[in-house]
Amino acid sequence: MSMRRTIVLPLALAALIAACGGGYGSSDTGITGTTSATGNAVRVADNSFTPSATTVPPGTTVTWTWAGARQHNVTFDDGTASATQASGTFQRTFAAAGSYAYHCTIHGSVMSGVVTVR
Hints:
By secondary structure, the chain is an alpha/beta fold. It has a single domain, classed as Cupredoxins -  blue copper proteins (Immunoglobulin-like), CATH 2.60.40. Helices cover about 15% and strands about 40% of the residues. It is built from 1 helix and 9 strands, in the order αβββββββββ. The protein is globular, with a radius of gyration of 21 Å.
C-alpha cells in the first residue's frame, strides 16, 4: 500500500499542475497595473495611461480608450493630439520605427507614455 501511495501522489500532483496551465512564456502576466506591454490598446483613466509603454510593429494602429470620469488628451511630442475628452477613443497608426512619446497636457509628465515601433 505504501508503494501505491508513492506512485499515485506524484501522478496526482503532475495532473493538477497540468490542469492549472502554468502560463510560462505568456505575454499576459495577469497582474493588474502592468505599465509595459506589447499590444495596440491603451486605457486612459484618471491620471494614468495603462500601459504607459507599449511596443508595436510598423503599420499598427494603437487605440486609446477613455475609462475614467475626468477629461484627458493624448498629445505627442511631434504635435499629433487627440481632443480633450472624458469618454471615447483616439487612434493613431504608426508607420515608421521609432519612439513616440506622449502625455496629457492637463496633467503633464505625471500622465505620460511612449509607443515604441520596431
